[in-house]
Amino acid sequence: MSGYIPVHDPRSIESVACIGTGTIGGGWTAYFLSQGLNVRAFDPAPQQRVRLRANIEAIWPRLAQLDLAQSASIDRLVICETIEEALDGVSYVQESIIEDKALKSALFAELDAKTSADVVLATSSSQFIPSDLASNCQFPERVIVAHPFAPTYLIPLVELLAIPGKSDGAVQWAREFLIAVGKKPVMLKKEINGYIGNRLQKAYVDEARRLVEEGYCTYQDVDEVIVNGFGVRMAFMGLSQYYNLGGGLGGIEHCFKLFGWKGTREAQEDLRATVQKFAQASRWKNLKNGETRTSFVSLRHAALNLKRKHGRPALDNCLRRHTNNGITIQWNKMSIDVSITCAVRVTYPRRITRLFRRSRRQLPKQVSRRPSMVRDPNTGVGTHNVDLYGE
Predict the structure, then answer these.
(1) Cβ atoms 106, 19 nearer than 8 A
(2) pTM of the full predicted structure?
(3) Which of the chain's termini has less CB crowding within 10 Å, N or C?
(4) Where are the domains of the chain?
(5) Could you report the per-residue pLDDT of 214-250, keeping only the tens digit for each?
(6) Does domain 15-187 have CATH number 3.50.30.60?
(7) Over the stretch 369-387, which tens digit does the pLDDT of each residue have?
(8) In whole angstroms, what is the distance from residue 157 CA to residue 176 CA?
């Protein structure tokens, strides 16, 4: 059991400290400011402290184009000359100094000694486990990993990692806090170096290097395959729905029959449960008039399910749009509107056109599409409308 006892309401935090203000720490600082928090920032390097405000002022217009909190202001930033000043009165500390285990461990011992035991201490480390970083702390139960992805002020994911049996409560608190400020946290079940995202990326990087070194392709080819291929699909489908898509009408079970399964039964059941969760979220047969639900499914599966369950009338008003929020399915009497959205900002019309061509080849012969594109002159975001018609 965790020994951490929360005192502060994670949904009502007003002041945080950012220790280390380089690329990652500066991004955290900008993001917390954009969410209306008071930020006390400190960096051991004086030149970083000097550059921090100018860097935030440079990216603030981009944040202003998004969803700034009503109370968001750069004036809420206090750049401190000492670490003690930065820690004064804060409820959460985000450490983002260089990736050096010895330096981070020493810093966490200092943070532990200079803050009250109820303040969560989080590291932005991309590889170290919290057990190592908290080895010299008197209160290790509030030390966690909160690993972001650059640019920190734009990408919502944060990987959370606790010291098993010690800082689980602190991770739960941090999860609620990060959700409250608009982040998308993912909690690891146990400690592992590199966490999830970086280990997945390393597999891509290592295989790309092998393909180039052995003369199969160039790095430009690799980029083209990712940017114009499965990268677009994975941006809104993730990995689990890849298995479901690969099985065609038979779904994930047919995929297992076709390609087999080399993992453990436990992992296979977890994959089944994840696919089923998406399926339940996207089930529209019980929707009432005007009710909406959000899910992530493929264009093909949306069309096939509408065709199978509701016939031709349900396909008359299917709409596919590329924005950035997911899929909204709305049942209105004899029709269902499906807005399938991709978490990719559309700046290259040809890329999306090719995506639709591939999608069409995957659809059954009786389903056709009629694409049109409208580009917003202010944002530059392209919107494709696709009507699917059943025979």
Answers:
(1) no
(2) 0.71
(3) N
(4) 15-187, 229-389
(5) 999 999 999 999 999 888 888 877 888 888 888 877 8
(6) no
(7) 333 444 555 555 444 433 3
(8) 14
